[in-house]
Amino acid sequence: MRKINSIESWSVIHRLFIVALFMFILNGLIHAQNITKSSGSAQVRMELNMTTEQAYEEAKLQAMIDAIQNAFGTYVEQQTDMAIIDGKETFNIIGGTKVRGDWIETLDEKFKVEFREEVTKLGKQDMKYITCNIKGRVRKTIPKAEIEYEALNCPDLICRTNNFYNEEQLYMYFKSPVDGYISVYIEVDDVTYRVLPYTTMDDKHKNGVAVKGDRDYIFFSEKENKFKHAVVDELEMFTNKKLEFNTIYVIFSEEVFVKPGLSQKEEIDGRIMPKSLESYKFRGWLSGNRAASPSFQEKKITVSIKPN
Length: 308
Known about the structure:
Elements: H1 6-33, E1 35-45, H2 52-72, E2 84-85, E3 88-89, E4 92-94, E5 97-99, E6 101-120, E7 123-140, E8 144-145, E9 148-152, E10 163-165, E11 168-175, E12 180-188, E13 191-196, E14 209-211, E15 217-219, E16 235-237, E17 244-253, E18 266-268, E19 271-273, E20 276-278, H3 279-292, E21 297-306
Parallel strand pairs: 10-21
Antiparallel strand pairs: 1-7, 2-3, 3-8, 4-5, 6-7, 9-11, 11-15, 11-16, 12-13, 12-14, 12-17, 13-20, 17-21, 18-19
């Protein structure tokens, strides 16, 4: 066997590094080339059981769907290219609608409000209509893990709910067909709090919690804790309003991702709040990760909180 000297060894390592770097850049360019700009529009009527925020959000979601369909066509259930293979789905779900593309980033959005007199069960009323015109960057859907997730008010799947009462505990069910990393955030008005990973988790989980495929997880429950070296952060939902809506973001990726910059924990009304960042910065972080990693995905759950 011929002995390889240090110069030859360094040369081999250097060539391997160059090849790896080239493949990384090429991969990024391929993903970037698949991203295109599109625009869409949608109008929704604000129903009597909707808040103003919900109506605006619904108009925005429908406009995003319209923009994706304008870029890649409409979804047809019978198409064979929409099948789920090895636990991965080749479509995306936005606002309950299956679409062919991913929304990467919002470039511009405008809302218009108008009123129309209509006959309802309560007689003639001025009904509010909200129109959203949106522009953004979209990408044709690349197969992603079909994850399962539920908000719970007890550490059992029978307790799935999107409606909470003040001081009720929040738990989260999660399952993925593949190994990966999960993180959970809760948006409250203009601030987004990171609630998973737990505070005491080690560096291996500092950006996202490593989870195994085909395994059931219930987070924020000491009884169901599968991370024995970490103390569970138990979450309590609270409000001082007649009705409050929070948005839970379930982040999952097969690849390691880097968390956004976070502020330190703070105390509000005697309660310790998790680390946080401003919501506009959080949305920018989401956009960057969606563009960089095809396996990166976020799922939203809107929950309500009422006084007892």
